[in-house]
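F.,

This is the one I mentioned.
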């Protein structure tokens, strides 16, 4: 479903325009307004209101909107939808004597997706994983541990060199083994 088409706004619409379009359409399709209508009309209004609410929730939040736009561009404007919603007729809201023959959005099943996930989408998913808070915290923790190990190792070498002038660790171990061998005899 294309959230911009559901609300009837352009891709670069401001939050104010999105809010205004949502309020106008929400008043028209709110289920309470159609509580006395026929079952088909009520169901159609409820479905349309749910779509409006989902579109509004996505487009009004900057992070969700950026994510939606990214996915929309990655798949192409028409391929980002899993279902093809078209205005008027179709599924839930059929005609009737009430005069709302083209009321709401109809549902026409799954839209075919061409291609599969492209390299851009895989890169984007990988990048999103790498920037999640838990991954960054784990990477920071690992970096601190690795840095701590390096500091301990280098400070151990520095202490060894300060206390044992001219001897390497291997030479010291050999002299200790010779001393032990001399005691045993």
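My design for it:
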């Amino acid at each position: 479903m294309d959230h911009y088409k559901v609300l009837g706004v352009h891709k670069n619409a401001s939050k104010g325009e999105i809010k205004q379009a949502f309020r106008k359409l929400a008043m028209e399709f709110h289920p309470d307004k159609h509580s006395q209508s026929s079952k088909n009309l009520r169901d159609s209004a409820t479905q349309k209101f749910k779509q409006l609410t989902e579109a509004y929730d996505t487009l009004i939040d900057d992070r969700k909107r950026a994510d939606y736009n990214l996915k929309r561009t990655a798949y192409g404007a028409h391929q980002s939808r899993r279902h093809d919603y078209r205005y008027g007729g179709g599924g839930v809201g059929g005609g009737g004597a009430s005069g709302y023959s083209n009321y709401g959005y109809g549902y026409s099943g799954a839209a075919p997706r061409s291609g599969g996930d492209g390299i851009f989408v895989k890169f984007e998913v990988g990048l999103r994983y790498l920037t999640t808070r838990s991954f960054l915290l784990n990477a920071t923790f690992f970096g601190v541990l690795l840095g701590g190990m390096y500091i301990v190792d280098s400070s151990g070498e520095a202490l060894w060199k300060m206390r044992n002038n001219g001897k390497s660790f291997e030479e010291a171990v050999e002299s200790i083994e010779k001393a032990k061998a001399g005691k045993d005899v």
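Helices lie at 3-7, 15-29, 39-60, 62-75, 119-130, 133-163, 169-184.

Talk soon.
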